[in-house]
Amino acid sequence: MIDSEKKLAEKLFAVFEKLRDGEFPESGTAKMLREKNSDFFRGRAEEEFAELRGVVDGSHRHSDDFEKDFVLESSQTFYWFALAAIVKKKSFTEFLADSASEISRLEKIHAENKIPLAEIFEKDLRECREKGYL
After folding, report:
1. Neighbour-count burial of 130, counting CB atoms closer than 10 A to its CB (0-12 exposed, 13-18 middle, 19+ buried)
2. Quick check: 42 and 20 in contact, CB under 8 A?
3. pLDDT digits over 68-94, tens only?
4. How far apart are the C-alpha atoms of 62 and 130, rounded to whole Å?
5. Considering the entire predicted model, what is its pTM?
6. Are 33 and 19 spatial neighbours (Cβ–Cβ below 8 Å)?
7. Each residue of 92-131: pLDDT tens digit?
8. Which residues contact 94 (CB under 8 A, 6 or more apart)?
9. Alpha-carbon distance 133 to 98, whole Å?
């Protein structure tokens, strides 16, 4: 990840940590972080990555907008991988190290489709602001 993407990802990761730590107990993410384990989150991340590949090959769609579907599935992939680390109380730095191959796959598919990785972080941070998490 380039530095600007890493800063956005770290900010998003920090929001997820706040959810884990109980600042917004009504959040669905906060509830999952209390009830699920890392294996559950990693499994969900792999499912979302498969859906992302499906968007690319045309076998998975939510809309007629390729970029919108691509960003959605990519965002979900990052979300679930991040939660797998957060539930284990890993730091952002540990997450980057432990998830290097997964992040590399995301970077590669973004580069191949000429959609900046930063788009997923910006979208998710906007949504976090709308929900009052930032």
Report:
1. exposed
2. no
3. 999 999 999 999 999 999 999 999 999
4. 22
5. 0.91
6. yes
7. 999 999 988 888 999 999 999 999 999 999 999 999 999 9
8. 85
9. 26
Contacts of residue 104, defined as CB under 8 A and 6 or more positions apart, other chains included, come to none
Q: What is the SS3 string spanning the chain?
A: CCHHHHHHHHHHHHHHHHHHCCCCCCCHHHHHHHHCCHHHHHHHHHHHHHHHHHHHHCCCCCCCCHHHHHHHHHHHHHHHHHHHHHCCCCCHHHHHHHCHHHHHHHHHHHHHCCCCCHHHHHHHHHHHHHCCCC
8 A C-beta contact, residue 30 and residue 19: yes
- Token pair for 8: 């956005």
Tens digits of residue pLDDT in 34-67: 888 889 999 999 999 999 999 999 999 898 889 9
